[in-house]
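This part of the workshop introduces the protein records we will be handling. The structure tokens are whole numbers drawn from a learned vocabulary of backbone shapes. The record below serves as our worked example for the rest of this section.

===
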Amino acid sequence: MVKLTEVEDEHFVEKPIGTKNDALLLSDDEDDYTDTDSEISDASDDELEEETIYDRISALKDIVPPSARHTVTNSIDAITSFGKASLSFSGKALWIISTSAFLIGVPWALAYAEEEQYIQMEREQGMIKGANEMLTPGSEPEKNDAAQQIL
């Protein structure tokens, strides 16, 4: 069987020194506070040099309460899922628009360019006719000459 014994701290056994206003005064004896310097100051310097940023950030999770961590985690999950869905939708929309442009736009552009060539050729022929009429002002148009030759 285990027997428990109570060990009293020496600070609680001695009565504090009072003054005339019942205010407590600190004792001049500094030996009482020497035991707090031993482990904290020596070990912390070595551990800080070996500690990484990841270790520091992972230690911060103990500071934040679980409800706040849950809220932050849900918010981050919602943002990432929205981002993934947006990128997926954008990629699919870009694919549809680009293939539609190739299947519809390229043939239309080729037909438009061909039509512009025909219009340009007609203008050139009209300019050639106008130039011929200016060079020979007294002659009849070519259509009449061709019609007279046939008759």
In short: The radius of gyration is 49 Å.
